[in-house]
Amino acid sequence: MYKPYKRPTGILVLGATSSIAMAFSRLLARPDTHFFLVARNPRKLNSVASDLLTRGAASVVVHAMDLDETPLHPAMLSEAAASLGNIDLALIAHGVLGIQEEAQAHYEAASAILTTNFLSPVSLVTWLANYFEGTRQGTLAVISSVAGDRGRKSNYLYGASKGGLNIFLNGVRNRIDRAGVQVLTIRPGFVATPMTAHLPQGPLFATPTAVAHGILRAMQTRRDIAYVPGFWAAIMFVIRAIPEAIFKNLDL
Amino acid sequence: MSASKLRQKKSAPAFESWGRYPRLPATLVPLYWMEEFPPADRPVASMLPVGMGRSYGDVCLLENGTLLHTTTLDRFIGFDPKTGLLRCEAGVTLAEILKFAVPLGWFLPVTPGTKFVTVGGAIANDIHGKNHHVAGTFGRHVPRFELVRSDGMRLECSPIQNSDWYAATIGGMGLTGLITWAEVQLRPIVSRKIVYHGTKFVGVDAFLELSQGAKNAEYSVAWIDCVAQGKNFARGIFMRGDHSPEPSILKPSRDPRLTLPVDLPSVLLNKYTVEAFNALYYRKQLGREKRALVDYEPFFYPLDSILHWNRLYGKDGLLQFQCVLPFEDGQQGILRILKAITSSGLASFLAVIKVFGDVPSPGMMSFPAPGITLALDFPVRRDVSFDLLERLAYITVEHHGKMYPAKDACMTALQFQSFYPQWREFAHYVDPAFSSSFWQRVSGVGAINLAAATSTAGLGNALV
Ligand SMILES: Cc1cc2nc3c(=O)[nH]c(=O)nc-3n(C[C@H](O)[C@H](O)[C@H](O)COP(=O)(O)OP(=O)(O)OC[C@H]3O[C@@H](n4cnc5c(N)ncnc54)[C@H](O)[C@@H]3O)c2cc1C
Question: In the beta sheet, which residues pair with residue A29?
Fold first, then answer.
């Protein structure tokens, strides 16, 4: 169902201290915007909160928790809804890259990646989808990754967690789009953040600010899936098109 | 890509400053959170904070060291809209401050010729602007900051708290430790506009007279043509400006769109093209006097609308030179410098001359001092540029002036130590894990020679 874009004023950010989430939150900080920020580290949360308040946000509430603790999600989300009055936008931005070598050697390491990148968002989206379906409005934006489009030997646990998330979100969208809720899957390419600080940075790297602008545009145009920056749509189209028989022998 | 090429890429990449000379290998480590410095897990032997890299030579470079990239420390901490006091992390750029503050009716207390510098970089070089004669340096408007040493010691510094560290860090070239956050005292404005007044002049005398007459103007600076000879020698345009007192809409600026995507062949910038440019620039202003109401952006940042304009100089880069000569026969010194340039056959594209006032800098090592300051740039040409800069440094020594480390790639240890005799005291404040290629060049050698060279004349001889 089509609903025109309305600037969100009640904003829930999960993984609020991630570089992309910080850059994105800044773009929305106005005298009428209220934030509820969730992340693990209370000191970092406070830094982000004072940044948003200084930049003009009306109010910021912080909630420190480990989002891997899925049983705690419903209480935290109810608190967010109560604090914001109405959640217009929920951004799910937390995630880990993990260490592929460890994840392919030990199930525990693989499971940790899947918990943070897949199970935790599934738990959050389960609650939020019902919430938004009930209020018949809002945007549920989730940061996935281009890595979820195809498994590669260098990061397939990360890729699988994001790929699973993509399919899950497809289904949720299919269910609640008709309630007027936007379900936005964001697929960034390489972004210069602490997650990628150890990689040699090439021309494909985007800044968190550029990605944040891309997310905002995707919200304004009511997109379902957004590659950010946009050129990744073309790159991933090609990557997906390579037959598996050839792909399996490539060094990517 | 072949395996060997990949391996090559893995070795430390080379970094360059705005002048693009020199290029030195280093490891870049972005700092994301103030509390994560110093890193607990792996102590680093030799490091240096770097902001936007808008210094010209090697004050922001460290060969084979670790560059702590601070532009990711870009959060605001608090702002008092009644007093204009802003507290922010050190990697916030002046551009971000303007974007935030101008719509609220506040402006930077001091700004350099580009807004793409960080607060940390502005403190570490204790930068000056067109209002030095009334406002002094940037450091004067920084009432408080935090300095974190490599051993984990955190010092809150102000003129009364840890005042010795305060003085050493303002103008301390990033050597005393990492500045994590700072307070900047903004000044109020009611309009984006600047009331501009341009006057053509010929000769350094005429320039000084105009400066004298513009003492009450908040901003003043002059562009000087250092190519023209004969009756046009030392002609220029004296520019003064004040914030418009007429209230008007304070909308935020737009981000620059134009970027110079490639290196131009350096032959494009030669004596003849610069001569033509200067002649055009001089004629652009038709009458002797010009008054106008202009936006603050082109007034303060004429080149910022073209990102990466340094590529204009080709990939060899450019050398900057900025000196300040005390008033006493400083005028003679400026004339000697201009003549040295003409006789070298080189030409400076952007020559700027200004009078510094006597508002004292809070920094122990700050560059500005009362007198005439001249800033010049030259393309890097192995055969002539370095010779010319050596000559200019020599003239600076002879006229009891000093050169600006932020714009230097070639001063010798002996020259530096004569310009900044307080460097020995300053050296006590240098963090043992911090260094820069500049510091290695100017502090490592020459101490014994300096002791021997008792007079400036002696120094001069030692230099030639
Ligand atoms: C077009 C142009 C015009 C200019 N005009 C002027 C002018 O009018 N007046 C003037 O004074 N200068 C001028 N400059 C020079 C410029 O203002 C200074 O070099 C400034 O310090 C650059 O800031 P940065 O953030 O790029 O710092 P960098 O160049 O990256 O670093 C400068 C110094 O600051 C230190 N530093 C950076 N961050 C920190 C930190 N967090 N803690 C401790 N130390 C730190 C570095 O170690 C280094 O020593 C100009 C430069 C350009 C390119």
Answer: none
